[in-house]
């Protein structure tokens, strides 16, 4: 098992809450004329060209991040993260306060006023609680943009086919990036160690052996200064439980499109399938090893799609 039961359920809980918030935000925008901050896609999108454009944009983004990582362009990366976080948080907050009639005229600005300080605390102050709480709201915003982009109202079944193809391609890429190229691990380590931030859920914790070492040191040394020196010499490592942002976004996109096509109940089967798949990964993965989550999540999503579609037949 990769993490302790407690940490596993905390990660699963945050994942599930984010999925449900994502569905709520996607549903909220069905009654909102357009996405704020220029995120509204063109009115007519060719499904094939839309998929190709997304893949090209994804490749460019990954290549750019790798290049910036290589040259340690910390300021540019932090600025990039900051802008993305502000927009994503703004989209999520906007979906809530839009329904308050008294402030509707100023909704765009109020959403920014809320998201800017949260993004600042997240990116530049590295507060662990703020980091994980904002993650719950960031991915619903990003997921809603992609749902809006990929949902073809004239042919919603085609939207599902496009997402299935995208999930297969992303899963193949994830396997290659983690198990063969290995640069996903390097990107995560650079973000955590150099940038002091991470695009995903991030929980440091101590396992039983680490806690035992600390207890022994505290019992041996009474003064706090002596304890700190001893801890540095012993090099007690803190375990990290992480879940990448992409692993959270894609289930939101799939369930969001399914909800717009078949309704909420069928979409919830996708959420359940993805959550169970993630639980399986966490409980079967070995500690200290890296695993691509998307193949597991995609399997859960596809199972949820099939069950959800069968439910619509009755």
Word description of this protein:
The protein has 314 residues and is mostly helical. It has one domain. Helices cover 75% and strands 4% of the residues. α6 runs antiparallel to α10 and α10 packs parallel to α12. The two termini are 39 Å apart. The model has no long low-confidence stretch (mean pLDDT 88).
Which tags fit this structure?
314 residues; mainly alpha; two-stranded antiparallel sheet; 12 helices; 2 strands; 75% helix
Nutshell version of this structure?
This protein has 314 residues and is mainly alpha-helical.
Task: Describe the SSE topology.
Elements: H1 5-28, H2 47-70, H3 74-97, H4 107-125, H5 128-150, H6 156-181, H7 183-195, E1 200-205, H8 208-220, H9 224-234, E2 239-244, H10 245-262, H11 264-284, H12 294-312
Antiparallel strand pairs: 1-2
Number of DSSP-assigned strands:
2
The percentage helix is over 70%
Mean model confidence by pLDDT: 88
By DSSP (H or I, 4+ residues per run), the number of helices equals 12
Number of domains: 1
Q: What is the topology, as strand order, of the major beta sheet?
A: 1-2
Order of helices and strands: HHHHHHHEHHEHHH
